[in-house]
Design goal:
With about 220 residues, the protein is an all-alpha fold. The chain contains eleven helices and two strands, in the order H-H-H-H-H-H-E-E-H-H-H-H-H.
Length: about 220
């Protein structure tokens, strides 16, 4: 398929000189937009777009603001389109290969930034997830899945993996030497599992979104 990835849509604008000092790297921006798109109740643009501004001292002229807003919305629409198709728009180069640093392996810098962006937004929308969870419980739709695994366990597993790969240095520090060595050895396998966990993350958000009132049909369950 020739459909461009969301990151390919935002990259030409995000990397312009006028935005480089204002925004994070394009991978982090794309990860942030992914998490916005995956939120059970998508926040309004005026809420989430300021999360991307990393320098309060920077000033953008009105024309730049309009261009940036249009670009970010196009990226959001693209991620939503991928999610409706049951696909995950993770840039392939983020997960191609594993880097080595001394005796340990680590994900690419691009992947760590992408996941850091995702986790940053997830933290900002935790209250939205919690509200959706409460609504789902009232409707008794937050039951165990066909696999018998509670949704809470699914989300915990996803976030744990995202956090580990986003900051592998911290993950190594928090483990004993033999555990760190095992993590390093298993890192390529863990990274292969990432697309499936990202899909489960979006599927879980879609399930919760169905429990919220007055929601647009943002998600459709994949068959």
């Amino acid at each position: 398929m020739n459909e461009p990835l969301p990151i390919e849509i935002i990259k030409p604008v995000i990397e312009q000189d006028s935005f480089c000092s204002v925004l994070p790297c394009v991978e982090k921006v794309d990860g942030m937009i992914f998490a916005v798109a995956a939120c059970p109740e998508i926040p309004m643009p005026e809420q989430w777009m300021p999360w991307l501004i990393q320098s309060g001292s920077s000033r953008l002229v009105d024309s730049d603001v309009d261009i940036l807003a249009d670009t970010l919305m196009n990226g959001l629409r693209s991620h939503l389109d991928y999610m409706r198709q049951g696909r995950i728009a993770l840039p392939p180069y983020c997960v191609d290969g594993v880097e080595s640093e001394g005796d340990t392996k680590k994900p690419s810098y691009a992947l760590s930034q992408w996941l850091t962006g995702l986790l940053f937004v997830h933290k900002n929308v935790e209250s939205v997830w919690q509200n959706a969870w409460q609504q789902a419980e009232k409707k008794e739709s937050n039951a165990e899945t066909a696999s018998g695994e509670p949704p809470e366990a699914r989300l915990t597993r996803c976030l744990k993996m995202f956090s580990t790969l986003a900051n592998i240095e911290l993950a190594y520090q928090q483990r004993r030497a033999e555990q760190a060595a095992q993590l390093s050895e298993n890192l390529p396998l863990l990274m292969q599992q990432l697309p499936a966990l990202l899909k489960d993350y979006t599927n879980l958000a879609g399930d919760l979104a169905c429990a919220l009132p007055n929601q647009f049909e943002t998600f459709s369950k994949s068959t």
